[in-house]
Q: What sequence folds into this?
């Protein structure tokens, strides 16, 4: 299995995801596959009804949360670092420090990685039409 999801997560939410977020999620799938790390989606959109948040990225289809259960500290730090380095141009601006962050490791109901993209993310460099 490439990834799994908590029971509350509606995978139909993928249909409403920003194309930039799909690129970021694909990066995540490939990273986890490469290193044999479990990938579990803990939140996308529909499962967040009634949850207050610092931003509207989930509701707008621009964010997804993944579990870090089974990840080493090394992989958490490496993944967040590399993701923020390579995807800064499509990353949403972090509410805490106003810097672009594609991956934010933090605690919600549990520690997880919040993947996020900006509203007007340009994906040209990731897609070739030749």
A:
């Amino acid at each position: 299995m490439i990834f799994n999801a908590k029971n509350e997560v509606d995978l139909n939410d993928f249909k409403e995801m920003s194309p930039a977020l799909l690129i970021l999620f694909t990066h995540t799938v490939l990273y986890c596959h490469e290193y044999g790390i479990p990938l579990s989606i803990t939140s996308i959109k529909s499962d967040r009804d009634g949850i207050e948040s610092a931003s509207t990225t989930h509701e707008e289809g621009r964010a997804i949360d993944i579990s870090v259960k089974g990840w080493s500290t090394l992989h958490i730090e490496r993944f967040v670092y590399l993701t923020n380095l390579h995807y800064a141009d499509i990353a949403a601006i972090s509410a805490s420090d106003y810097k672009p962050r594609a991956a934010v490791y933090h605690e919600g109901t549990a520690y997880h990685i919040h993947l996020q993209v900006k509203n007007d993310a340009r994906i040209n460099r990731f897609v070739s039409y030749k």
Remarks:
- The chain has one domain: 4-121.
- The chain has two helices and seven strands.
